Amino acid sequence: MTKKLSTLLVLFISCQYLFAQGNLLKDFPEGFGPKEVGKRLAYRFVDRKHMLHAGKWISYPETFNWTGALKYAEKTKDKKLFSLLEARFDKLTADEKQLLPIMNHVDLNMFGSLPLEFYLATKDKKYLELGLPYADTQWQLPENANAQQKAWADKGFTWQTRLWIDDMYMITIVQAQAYKATGDRKYIDRAAKEMVHYLDELQRPNGLFYHAPDVPFYWGRGNGWMAAGMTEILRLLPKDSKERPRILEGYKTMMKSLKDFQSPTGMWNQLIDAPDCWPETSGTAMFTYALISGVKQGWLDQKEYAPVARKAWLAMVPYINEKGDVREVCVGTNKKNDRQYYYDRPRNVGDSHGQSPYLWCVLALMEK
What we know:
The chain has 368 residues and is an all-alpha fold.
């Protein structure tokens, strides 16, 4: 064989291998395709009861479940589904106004991301006018702010800063949506600055995050919020942002650690580094979303990470029951410096904490 033919053969084999790696996130067995899985989950949301925050306001899990279903309707051009979701939202703003979240907490301001998604889809300014104040007030210091909140604001951070890892999805998503809706870079820049602060304060050397500085446990969904938040901001953050290299570094370090801690089944456990802990679906889905996105966006090496993401997706889907409800979802969980507490947390079926990130995975898999 001539040297030229040998070189061409090596290139051909390399191209075939890369093509096969790319197909790992495209070709799935029957029942595992993202479009069919997404339909089961998105339509399931339509007939669900509201999941309220402390029994009073639309909760962040419901908000993200709703947005995921909405994005799926947009992606698949499912006009029927979109109409059902919009009708439910219009009922909320007309007949159920008491359920609209107020704008005084990180877990409530995130609601603005939902009307902003409706605005992006319809260009109807009523949605922009409803959603944008949730992003704006996150950086507008209230008159009754305490000393700590004032100190955060003086440093250029949101007064809602708490240094809880789930904040990095709650804050990021509403600011990112505001940036997409307006093109005003202040929204994405301030979210990026906040993200870097959280990374510097909370990320451990192995790339993972304790539930809180005083709670030294790697809780799955808590880490999932961080993984998804970094993913969302990296999707939008301009290449010239001075914060981008630090966020990308934090993201890659976390993804490497997650690859190492993936269980043989393809799932991640309730406590990520505890092999004897139970497989938990919401955290697994958040990690899988971050991994799929990283491979498709070119942040992660395809050869190394596409198999990890595929293995996770194939493990996740069987946890959806015949009704379209995800099983083995950890309930809402506050921090506690007690390892057994995390082992003993109740597990829900159909909880929006789990439904939402499954839809994020669907949407990421459907990207080209």
